[in-house]
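Exercise 3.2. Students should predict the tertiary structure of the chain below and write it as structure tokens, then compare their answer with the key that follows.

Predict this chain's 3D structure.
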Amino acid sequence: MLWRFRREIILIFFILVGTWILKHNLIFRPIVFKQQSHLKELTPELKSVIIENENLRKLLNLKQNKGFSRIIYANTKMISPWVFPSVIAVDKGSRDGVKENMAIVNHKGSLIGRIVEVKENVSTGITIYHPDNRISVMVLETGELAVMEGFSLSFLSSNIKIKFLPSECKASAGDTVETSGLTRLYPCRVRIGKIVRIESLRTEPVTHGFVKPFFINEDLRTVAIVE
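Answer key:
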């Protein structure tokens, strides 16, 4: 008698198998893998676009958050060298209102350097790593003043030296260093980096320290020129 219902049995069997396959998503797995592979190939480009848009959004907030009187947004055309860059070129110039000695900051408002040469459509700046750079700085936590010099250490380190801290220096590792505003080259209270080490020599009446800049690990494809 069972053979009379073989079609019904076969139908029920296929229904059960189909239900099991759908439940375990076996049919759609190859499509998912293909889509994931496709997204994986595009990830670097998509990531680049997302980062650039995010940096631009943060740059647009600089005026509100940092109180700069003027902000010019720019794309970076060149940095040299690639590690601990001392020179940076951007795609904005005199036509866009860029002037010599305007400060360059990243999307977080941290100091990169200043403009030293301006042409119509491009400008060149030196970063805080450049040997010719001298910046009057202040330790945020203690109010102590110092001078930050350009790169003077081995290229194996990203730290920059600050000099002429008081002999009885209260600053310590982890303190924030920012521009003092005592010179016209840089706006006041622009973050630079954190102290990583303080050195006090008995043979010298002043104390030295070493600072790791905030901008060194950031994406520099978009920057702001400010005053």
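Discussion points: The longest helix spans residues 29-60. The first strand starts at residue 71 and ends at 80.
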